[in-house]
Amino acid sequence: MSISEMEDPEMKGKKKRGRPGKQAPVQEFVKKGETCGKKSGRGKANGVAQHNGDGGDPVTLFEVVKLGKSAMQSVVDEWIESYKQDRDLALLDLINFFIQCSGCKGTVRIEMFRNMQNAEIIRKMTEEFDEDSGDYPLTMPGPMWKKFRYNFCEFISVLIRQCQYSIIYDEYMMDTVISLLTGLSDSQVRAFRHTSTLAAMKLMTALVNVALNLSIHQDNTQRQYEAERNKIAGKRANEKLELLLQKRKELQENQDEIENMMNSIFKGIFVHRYRDAIAEIRAICIEEIGVWMKMYSDAFLNDSYLKYVGWTLHDRQGEVRLKCLKALQNLYTNRELFPKLELFTNRFKDRIVSMTLDKEYDVAVEAIRLVTLILQGSEDALSNEDCENVYHLVYSAHRPVAVAAGEFLHRKLFSRHDPQAEEALAKRRGRSSPNGNLIRMLVLFFLESELHEHAAYLVDSLWESSQELLKDWECMTELLLEEPVQGEEMLSDRQESALIELMVCTIRQAAEAHPPVGRGTGKRVLTAKERKTQIDDKNKLTEHFIMALPMLLSKYQADSEKVANLLQIPQYFDLDVYSAGRMEKHLDALLKQIRLVVEKHIEADVLEACSKTYSILCSEEYTIMNRVDIARSQLIDEMTDRFAHSVEELLQEAEEADDDDIYNVLSTLKRLTAFHNAHDLTRWDLFGNCYRLLKAGIEQGSMPEQIAVQALQCSHYSILWQLVKITEGVPSKDDLVALRRVVKSFLAVCQQCLSNVNTPVKEQAFMLLCDLLMIFSHQLISGGREGLQPLVFNPDSTLQNELLNFVLDHVFIDQDDESQSMGEREVRSDHVVVSIKSHHNNFSTSNNIFYYNDYGDIIKETLSKTRQTDKILCAKTLILSLQQLFNELLQDQGPNLDRTSSHVSGIKELARRFALTFGLDQIKTREAVATLHKDGIEFAFKYQNPRGPEFPPINLAFLEVLSEFSSKLIRQDKKTVHSYLEKFMSESMSERREDVWLPLISYRNSLLTGGDEDHMSVTSGSSSKTGSVRSKKGRPPLHKKRIEEESSVEGSWMMRNDTLQTPGALQTPQLTSTVLRENRPAEHMPDPDSEPGSENDYMQMSWLGQQKIEEVNRKDRTGMNYIKSRSNQGVRRGLMEDDAEPIFEDVMMSSRGQLEDMNEEFEDTMVIDLPPSRNRRERAELRPDFFDSAAMIEDESVKKLI
């Protein structure tokens, strides 16, 4: 039985007229066949699904579109066939499709369609909406739902295309659909609003396409009519004229109908939803209006529609701004549209240019591309200031932004306007390349970039757009080597240096085929085409520079900066070309020039470049190795002979040595040190002469600091090369003994140099000491190298203290940031790094670093590594750092601390941040946290007040800092720590209520609160909040066995018997600085043997059962009375502190943010059935401020852009 047979006999056969003012109801589409193209019975009587005879499930239009197995045109054709048979039922099928696409489980039935208004139907569907999940088809993840969105949009497009010649003009179908979508788009339910807005915008796009076709047909008809009418009377066909007039009239009527439909959608949906509270809905509107303006520019590309895109450029969501820019890109790509965009460009150009600095990188990239399109269309549209705002982005660390800016720069400055004329001019001047002027312009641009000096970044930014220019190495070498011809200016010295730097960067980019350091996430795998291009470029640059480089070095050998850059080029050569192309004579020329450079320069960067070049050319995989090795050995022989001779003269003359003697030693030693870094020179035994220089300097105290620094560095390299030889082979006992003797003697020399009066010498000695102690630490014998055990060195306490004193006196010092140069900060950072490495391997020096601002990244990484290595050691380090800060504060302010001062608050804030580093898993960190509390309690009661026992101990205020860690204790450990605290307390202390005793009161309170919550954390392994979340996921609670196991290890951190294996003493260092840092008068030092609650007593508290009984009794006597006296205020505060984990704060903030967004969403989507005046007033009051002030003008009144 069909639905039409079940209808009311009075309604059957009657056609409903179009009701533009009334919104139509909906009914579900039911299909019984396997495919939509196959005709089959479908039915749903009064909303009850009808099954086919085989018992299969009913297939709705929503399911057909979701699965996407049938061609969309066949689906639409079958719907059209059903519409022709019964348009009411077909419309119910279609409109119910929109309801289901919104994720609504409800169904509009036939009686609802007959008797209810559209607003009532939507309200009814809202009540039946599934609110358990916020997801609906358009927001669900996964490829199936992504395909559904595409199918959904395609269905609407095909539907209008197939109905464009008849059905859409029947004044019923489109009125009903538009009416429903308008009502849904104003719903408070986001799913309805989102889905209906997407459907309406796609519907509008399809109608725009229909309107465009109608316009084309009208123009064709008009031309035919004019042509026929202009014929002479005898040949004119009046009947054809009448037909053309009738056709033109019909087309005009259809055009008017389409315009009415588009106006209804635009004014009823777009103008409200383009400023919706949900960014996705706003993005849909902007994306589609861009399509309309491009598709039908005659109708839509005007200020009345462009203003919406311009206003939305100020949207606060990057997704929406991105859609605006892409919509405008599609318009500016067509140069024919530029006249229509002129007013918009003038009005919103400043905003578009400013968006090149958008915080969202994707938006910034598209903004730069849009500015580039504007530049291509009209160079006069952008001012010099606008261009400069884009220029500097070529130095951005974000590569897509830099590449887009590079494209803009290429279009503006480096594109040839008349290639043929420029090539002819170059030939007349005798140049092989026409790019000379462009390269000069590139150099000038690089030099005028005052904000940046990163040539590699500039080259990488231009690489994709100006590759032909950047690979023109012949033109670059011509500019450097040849004299300028008539009409050309000579390059200045600064320009030559810049050109050489840029040229080297282009060579690196071509040879390595990946961005410079700092851009990109790493080297990506090259495609076959890219790999071939890389090989071709490498061969091309090798063949060119094999001949050009010796000439360049010969010309610029006196300029250290230019030579250092030019010597980077050989590392990018394909060295097989030397032998394959029989170019050994060019190799000899290169080696000759490098030798001259070594003999002429003593600058470190030049010598390092020469050393690296020799190392590359001496690679064993190339046949030229022997030729280069001979040249290198000859050079080293001459330098070592000269060095030995000059050292003898210097030592003999001693204090009578003149400047020439010192220069001879220093210059030769610098060259040898630079070569020793990359080459094994142990057969020349440089260590002996270097050691003699150092010993002489220590004994006589008159060695120049530069010679001492270079001798230390050269000796260090010699030791490392000896170690390499031993580790690579099978060393004998004599070899190990000899190397140990050398290392031991050198370490002693470095330790003596720490007291040198010259700071550079001390710094060099410190760095080398830390490096060697790390290299020759216990890690040397790892990996099956136990035979190297004789080479392991462990520093004694004297050396540890000297290194620690160096760090405290030369790194952690108070100095104004403005007075520190970048080089000084880098040196100090290096000192911090090496001291931390040494601490990790041998001893503790990092206890004093946590409260300095200059080394945050290093400190955080160190703290993380220390925690991974040993949680208890890390906890001890944290508490010791806080104790040292507290001692300094006592020394500055005296025993009467102002606990409200910023200094005390700073220590508490640091403790709070330290507490957060322990994370959420209290079981894993329980021993470490308990140990921290133990050390803190001992420190607080360490020194009694000299005025008597009725006064608080000197360090009692430290308990207020320690209370920041109480939230990290589980319930059992809180009780145990409280018991340990009471061992230090007298009866009178527990009764004191004066302000000076508040730290003790606060700390005790933090230990006596949060029992229930902590019990939850013990039994479930998480806090109460996380426990409730986990229970929702269906995780069963832990078994009693787990609880018993945790209870059995409850006192394990107390039973360690002080067996923590810390690498070195972790007590406050004996010498923490050359300045006294502690406030500990000797007369007030208590006897450790008689100290109550000593560490041994604390560690022997394994009798936890008896301790718990005593603890309960003490609670009855003291703790509970105290809690009552404080009226539970402290308890509440303690509970809040326990829960103050960042993750929970973030969750609550997110929840509040979602609630605000929800409220904003509801406020901005007022139901349209409200009285007009009130509705407009409330919309104006509650509209989100997404745009600039121009957007606040009423849409109807804004006809032109201002």
Automatic annotation (TrEMBL):
Q: Where is the composition biased (Low complexity)?
A: 1017-1029
Family annotation (SUPFAM superfamilies): ARM repeat
Q: Which residues form a coiled coil?
A: 234-264
Q: Which residues form the SCD domain?
A: 270-355
Q: Which GO terms describe its cellular component?
A: chromatin; chromosome, centromeric region; cohesin complex; nucleus
Q: Which UniProt keywords are listed?
A: Cell cycle, Cell division, Chromosome, Chromosome partition, Coiled coil, Nucleus
Give GO BP annotations, semicolon-separated.
cell division; chromosome segregation; sister chromatid cohesion
User: What molecular functions are annotated in GO for this chain?
Assistant: chromatin binding
Which InterPro entries does the entry link to?
ARM-type_fold (IPR016024), Cohesin_Scc3/SA (IPR039662), HEAT_SCC3-SA (IPR056396), SCD (IPR020839), STAG (IPR013721)
* Highest taxon of source: Eukaryota
UniProt keyword Kinase present: no
**Subcellular location, in the record's words?**
Nucleus; Chromosome; Chromosome, Centromere
Give the compositionally biased regions (Basic and acidic residues): 1077-1087
Where is the segment annotated Disordered? 1-52, 1009-1053, 1077-1097
Comp. bias regions, Basic residues: 1030-1041
Family note? Belongs to the SCC3 family.
Write down the PANTHER family for this protein, in alphabetical order. Answer: COHESIN SUBUNIT SA-1, STROMAL ANTIGEN
The protein's job, in short, is:
Component of cohesin complex, a complex required for the cohesion of sister chromatids after DNA replication. The cohesin complex apparently forms a large proteinaceous ring within which sister chromatids can be trapped. At anaphase, the complex is cleaved and dissociates from chromatin, allowing sister chromatids to segregate.
> How does this polypeptide assemble, per the annotation?
Part of the cohesin complex which is composed of a heterodimer between a SMC1 protein (SMC1A or SMC1B) and SMC3, which are attached via their hinge domain, and RAD21 which link them at their heads, and one STAG protein.
- Supply the name of the protein: Cohesin subunit SA
